[in-house]
Write a structure and sequence with these properties.
Layout (H helix, E strand, L loop, with lengths): L1 H19 L3 E6 L10 E4 L6 H5 L1 H17 L3 E2 L6 E18 L3 E2 L5 E2 L6 E18 L4 E12 L3 H26 L1
Parallel strand pairs: 2-3, 2-4
Antiparallel strand pairs: 1-8, 4-7, 5-6, 7-8
Helix pairs in contact: 3-4
Length: 183
């Protein structure tokens, strides 16, 4: 019985750790926009980018992946008179993960044994990153589409790059779904 309870607690801890490592994607768009009329885009790099300042190669990767997804979706990159403008923002914050364990043992009717064996607390810090992709109409200066990806940022740069690629793949898939739905 003790082994079964310990196994269940370990399994739940692994599942919760795995769930927190998932990338969550949220999308919103203007329901009044006819996405079938959007054929061209222009990259808008006027805002300050902390990624460009701290990791220029990562900035170039994010920018290239976003443009690749738009081109795969049938849009053409232009410098004059685009249908939409595109840019991105990032934010990183430190957060704490607190895992507590408290094993409670029960023997028979009314007899409780509560020795707190194996109980404890594990506190760890991690970075949570947010990547926001904005697409808006340059004529009206109103947002057309916004995609947000949120996930844990790995300390290993290669793993972080893979995570960004995965996040942008998910956002690109959401963009393609809306484009197809509107056609």
């Amino acid at each position: 019985m003790k082994k079964l309870i310990a196994s269940a607690v370990i399994l739940l801890a692994l599942v919760s750790l795995g769930a927190s490592n998932k990338i969550k994607v949220y999308v919103d768009y203007d329901r009044n926009t006819d996405f079938s009329t959007i054929k061209t885009f222009k990259w808008f790099d006027k805002f300050e980018s902390t990624v460009n300042d701290t990791a220029p190669s990562m900035h170039r990767l994010i920018r290239a992946l976003i443009m690749k997804k738009l081109v795969e979706g049938g849009l053409k990159r232009v410098e004059e008179n685009p249908d939409v403008l595109v840019t991105y923002y990032t934010e990183e914050s430190e957060d704490l993960r607190i895992n507590t364990t408290n094993y409670m043992y029960h023997y028979g009717a009314g007899w409780w044994v509560n020795p707190y064996w194996g109980s404890g607390m594990d506190v760890s810090a991690y970075s949570q990153g947010t990547l926001v992709v904005d697409i808006w109409n340059p004529k009206t200066n109103e947002a057309v589409w916004r995609g947000v990806a949120i996930g844990v940022v790995p300390e290993d740069p290669m793993k972080a790059e893979k995570r960004i690629v995965k996040a942008l793949d998910k956002l690109g898939d959401e963009w393609h779904k809306i484009q197809k739905k509107e056609k």
